[in-house]
């Protein structure tokens, strides 16, 4: 029994250490705005009182503070349990760990940052304790019934034989230790295995679910592509605005957005121009479409063709992604960007198909670009022009057809579908905080080539659990019958029983090393 206990403890602590390592290399970051108006990424722990911090849409607020510019809706569920977002604007207090939804805000820190990321760590370690997993509770429930049956058999044996020793032996061998141990040990070992590879599993059940998944929905920008598109062309559609002005206005707007396209536009601007960005007010993102805001008194809106009147659609459509810019409802320019497939994408898709997982590409981008990327990656099914709700509705539809669906995505717009899917997988470094929060599993290093391993390991885990349980049940059954017929004494019974547990644990912990 002690050996069994030790082995289980060993697996648990090994896994918790791996999780700790993983968290330590991925600290929560904050965007500090320095006195000379430049930005710097710092560790959230290093925030000092009175620091000025920029928080983009979809980001977790990295420290407690007061909004000094901008307005947004904040999801405070992590703090208060209230899932309805709360509108906040200049002067309102915001709290570390809550999620900024649609606006871009500047906050002034009211506390030093030390604690926030530590709390997150504690939360994760707590949830990774085996006794907190739901499936473990299910196994415990089973065990309760088996114990009840054991009593009945034991008493039955006594009634028939009047031999107290026999009925005690029945009790000893019937106890479902191995059964109860099989599931948690396997899950813990699998989580430890994945943590070593940089895959963070937030709940054990999602591994069991993943083993049964038929369809994998993939997001395009940032997931299947590198998410660092390059500006290939700037177009002016109105004589009053030069190309320089178009990119200046666009970069000013996009500086408040978290989207990979936005980051590329801002980066391009900073590399090529040196004028400071224009002040943007009333900024808001339109998920899956673009962004809008006011510069002085002009209404500006930038995004895909959903922001346009139909007439312009065919003139600019191309295989690259276009970001259109409208001022007071008039198209004034556009910027073309091209993104590249991640270099391991083709192999990953091949591997997934070989495992009978159907990949489906769902993108908010236009038809040509989406089709193009799907073809390059070897994906046969694709959907384009998807709004966030289109993605989650499609997942619902698949689920109604008895499919188990996994979704992998990186963006703020993917969060609803990551929640909706049976298993949500997020990208840890390019991904926005809100998508990481909504997912069950996170690829910390954005390494999609780990996906086949993840799927294979989940199936192996399920198999290990089932084999462990069947083995334990059969062993118990045989031992019980032997005990009933007086072919096993209590000491032998105890021995057989514990050997059984140890075998199940060793078998389950072997998942730690699965390659
Ligand atoms: P994907 O599903 O491919 O990851 P998204 O759903 O994030 O793409 O975005 C869909 C489309 O919406 C983008 O292809 C882009 O045209 C437009 N879009 C979204 N956010 C922005 C933004 N900040 N600036 C410009 N365009 C945007
Ligand atoms: Mg995306």
Description:
By secondary structure, the chain is of the alpha+beta class. Helices cover 46% and strands 20% of the residues. The strands form four sheets. It has a seven-stranded mixed β-sheet, with helices on both faces. A six-stranded antiparallel β-sheet has the order 2-1-3-9-4-7, with no helix packed on it. The chain is elongated and about 105 Å long. The model has no long low-confidence stretch (mean pLDDT 88). Bound molecules: adenosine-5'-diphosphate (ADP) and magnesium ion. Magnesium ion binds next to α8.
Annotation keywords:
18 helices; alpha+beta; binds magnesium ion; seven-stranded mixed beta sheet; 46% helix; 20% strand; 515 residues; 22 strands; elongated; six-stranded antiparallel beta sheet; binds adenosine-5'-diphosphate
Task: Write a concise synopsis of the structure shown.
The protein has 515 residues and is an alpha+beta fold. Helix content is 46%, strand content 20%. It is built from 18 helices and 22 strands.
Rounded radius of gyration (Å): 28 Å
Describe the main β-sheet briefly: 7 strands, mixed
Overall form: elongated
Can you count the beta strands?
A: 22
Low-confidence stretches: none
Strand content: 15-25%
Bound molecules: adenosine-5'-diphosphate, magnesium ion
Q: What's the average pLDDT?
A: 88
Distance between the termini: 29 Å
Helix and strand content put the structural class at alpha+beta
Contiguous helical run count: 18
Q: How are strands sequenced across the largest beta sheet? A: 10-22-21-20-11-18-19
The percentage helix is 40-55%
């Amino acid at each position: 029994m002690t050996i069994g206990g030790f082995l289980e403890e060993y697996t648990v602590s090994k896994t918790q250490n791996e999780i700790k390592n993983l968290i330590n290399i991925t600290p929560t970051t904050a965007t500090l705005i320095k006195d000379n108006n430049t930005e710097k990424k710092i560790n959230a722990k290093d925030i000092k009182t009175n620091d000025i911090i920029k928080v983009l849409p979809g980001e977790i607020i990295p420290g407690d503070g007061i909004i000094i510019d901008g307005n947004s809706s904040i999801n405070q569920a992590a703090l208060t349990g209230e899932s309805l977002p709360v509108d906040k604007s200049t002067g309102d207090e915001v709290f570390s760990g809550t999620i900024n939804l649609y606006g871009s805000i500047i906050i002034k820190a009211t506390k030093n940052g030390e604690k926030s990321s530590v709390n997150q760590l504690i939360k994760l370690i707590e949830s990774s304790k085996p006794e907190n997993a739901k499936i473990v509770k299910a196994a415990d429930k089973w065990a309760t019934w088996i114990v009840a049956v054991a009593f009945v058999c034991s008493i039955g044996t006594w009634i028939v034989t009047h031999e107290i020793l026999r009925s005690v032996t029945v009790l000893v061998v019937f106890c479902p230790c191995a059964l109860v141990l099989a599931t948690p040990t396997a899950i813990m070992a699998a989580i430890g295995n994945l943590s070593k590879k940089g895959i963070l599993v937030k709940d054990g059940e999602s591994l069991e679910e993943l083993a049964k998944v038929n369809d994998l929905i993939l997001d395009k920008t940032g997931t299947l592509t590198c998410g660092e598109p390059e500006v290939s062309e700037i177009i002016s559609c109105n004589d009053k605005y030069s190309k320089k002005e178009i990119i200046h206005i666009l970069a000013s707007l996009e500086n408040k957005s978290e989207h990979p396209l936005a980051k590329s536009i801002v980066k391009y601007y900073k590399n090529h121009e040196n004028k400071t960005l224009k002040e943007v007010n009333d900024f808001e993102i339109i998920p899956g479409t673009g962004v809008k805001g006011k510069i002085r008194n002009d209404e500006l809106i930038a995004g895909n063709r959903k922001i346009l009147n139909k007439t312009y659609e065919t003139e600019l459509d191309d295989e690259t992604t276009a970001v259109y810019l409208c001022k007071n409802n008039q198209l004034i320019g556009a910027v073309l960007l091209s993104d590249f497939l991640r270099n391991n994408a083709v192999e990953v898709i091949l591997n997934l198909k070989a495992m009978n997982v159907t990949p489906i590409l769902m993108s908010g981008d236009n038809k040509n670009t989406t089709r193009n990327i799907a073809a390059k990656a070897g994906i046969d099914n694709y959907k384009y022009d998807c709004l966030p709700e289109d993605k989650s509705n499609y997942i619902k539809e698949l689920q109604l057809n008895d499919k188990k669906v996994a979704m992998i995505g990186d963006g703020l717009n993917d969060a609803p579908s990551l929640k909706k899917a049976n298993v949500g997988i997020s990208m840890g470094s390019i991904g926005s905080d809100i998508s990481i929060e909504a997912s069950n599993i996170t690829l910390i290093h954005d390494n999609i080539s780990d996906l086949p391993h993840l799927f294979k390991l989940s199936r192996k885990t399920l198999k290990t659990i089932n084999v462990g349980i069947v083995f334990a049940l059969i062993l118990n059954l045989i031992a019980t019958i032997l005990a009933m017929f007086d072919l096993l004494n209590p000491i032998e019974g105890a021995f057989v029983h514990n050997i059984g547990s140890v075998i199940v644990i060793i078998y389950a912990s072997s998942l730690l090393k699965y390659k």
